[in-house]
Design a protein that fits this description.
Keywords: Membrane, Transmembrane, Transmembrane helix. 74% of the residues lie in helices and 0% in strands. Among the domains are: 46-241 and 355-429, Four Helix Bundle (Hemerythrin (Met), subunit A) (Up-down Bundle); 301-328, no CATH class. It has helices at 2-18, 36-71, 73-79, 85-111, 114-145, 164-169, 175-182, 184-209, 212-240, 246-293, 304-310, 317-333, 361-394, 404-428.
């Protein structure tokens, strides 16, 4: 009996040692790792594998963009006029700055600068919220104008901001959908407002109850929640002065064309009398020798003059057709401008000059919402993980040997920023 007890006790002790519950393992070192270096390297490999899958995921959308843009480059150039370059540039700068603060946070976690780490993670979160606030202005503005994917696209230059009743009567939307499209900004801001109110209540309760840890967590998170509305305000200011109206572009182009036409008309009036006199004096001489004087080398060679002479006989219909064909060929060879374009086949059956159609513009905005929407979802995921890091940073969980989670999240955040750096020129700067 004593032997069994001793064996059992030895086995239990060995099990405790194998699961890392002995006194040599720190609390932040997982039981299946032998050293902090092994734990960090394993986590680094895992995050890189995850980032590779993310790159493959976004590569499919970039390939779709390349194919559609190759097929209809005019549609992409025309529809990009509706994208506000200022808003895209502001968001690019915000994300670049957030990458700086995230990289700095990784360094602070290694040097155990806990207060600075909390401030930098909160700054990164605030930048992410500003980005979403600006993007909410972009989305709501375009939804109200009808710049939607195929099947829902209803933009009209004659009425860029239709009312909810017009969406129901003219475009066939339901009343609830029409109300959402005309008031979409309020629906987007509502969840963030609820979060801000919740964090404010949490901050007050923590302050009253004297819970220092919860108060230290809620204070920077309240600033983060309010940063979203700062982005909304910034987007409203920039969007109000950066709208693109096709009607104005067309009108300006028409006025420019009218001015040029009037200028040319005045110039023509000044020279018409002199040109008419010269043309009248030279008309008879030019008409007599027009064909022969400008004749390029003829396939008939020296026989052309004889054939033309014989063709003057009414009975030689075949020679008449031959001379007519020869003269047509000479006109084309001289680069003569055709007065009747329908008489020639240029290989073009139809040219669509308007890209503002649901079938064409809707495809562009479908790709736009797909790429930027998935990117925004990754921003939201990053916000969730950064909040987790912020709480752990307040708890001072990170030190010189254990900073892996901050480093891994930083790599993810840099990839999200890098993807936007590609999206910005591909969507906003292609014109």
């Amino acid at each position: 009996m004593a032997t069994i007890d001793s064996v059992t006790n030895t086995t239990d002790a060995h099990a405790d040692d194998s699961h890392g519950h002995d006194h040599d393992h720190p609390s932040w070192l997982a039981h299946h790792f032998d050293s902090p270096e092994q734990q960090f390297d394993s986590g680094k490999l895992g995050i890189w594998l995850f980032l590779v899958t993310e790159i493959l995921f976004f590569s499919g959308m970039f390939c779709a963009y390349a194919i559609f843009r190759m097929l209809r480059p005019d549609v992409f150039v025309g529809c990009s006029e509706f994208l506000n370059t200022k808003l895209g540039a502001i968001n690019t700068g915000v994300l670049l700055f957030s990458s700086l603060t995230m990289a700095w946070a990784v360094r602070c976690s290694q040097t155990e600068e806990h207060k600075k780490l909390v401030a930098l993670i909160a700054t990164t979160l605030s930048c992410a919220m500003v980005f979403l606030g600006v993007k909410s202005i972009e989305y709501s503005h375009k939804w109200g104008m009808g710049l939607l994917p195929p099947g829902s696209y209803f933009y009209s230059a004659a009425n860029e901001h239709p009312t909810a009743q017009q969406l129901v009567d003219i475009h066939g939307f339901s009343e609830s959908m029409a109300y959402f499209l005309t008031n979409s900004l309020y629906f987007i801001c509502a969840p963030f407002a609820l979060v801000a109110v919740g964090v404010l209540v949490w901050l007050i309760v923590a302050k009253v109850s004297g819970n220092a840890f919860q108060y230290a967590c809620a204070k920077p998170l309240l600033v983060v929640a309010l940063s979203f509305f700062g982005g909304v305000g910034l987007g409203m200011i920039l969007e109000s002065g950066g709208e693109h109206h096709d009607g104005e572009h067309v009108a300006a182009a028409g006025d420019h064309a009218d001015v040029e036409h009037d200028d040319h008309a005045h110039e023509g009036d000044d020279h018409v009398d002199a040109d008419h006199a010269v043309a009248a004096a030279d008309h008879s001489e030019a008409s007599a020798d027009e064909v022969d004087a400008t004749m390029v080398e003829s396939p008939l060679g020296d026989d052309y003059a004889a054939v033309k002479l014989l063709a003057e006989n009414e009975t030689n219909t075949g020679l008449k057709d031959l001379v007519a064909a020869e003269q047509t060929q000479q006109s084309i060879a001289k680069g003569k401008v055709l007065t009747d374009p329908s008489a020639s086949d240029m290989g073009i059956t139809a040219v669509e000059g308007d890209v503002n159609t649901p079938r064409q513009a809707g495809v562009f905005f479908g790709i736009y919402y797909c790429m930027t929407g998935v990117h925004a979802i990754h921003i939201l995921a990053g916000i969730g993980v950064l909040v987790w890091l912020l709480i752990r940073a307040v708890r001072q969980d990170f030190n010189r040997q254990y900073f892996g989670p901050v480093d891994y999240v930083g790599l993810y955040w840099h990839l999200v920023d890098l993807i936007w750096i590609y999206l910005f020129p591909l969507l906003y700067l292609i014109r």
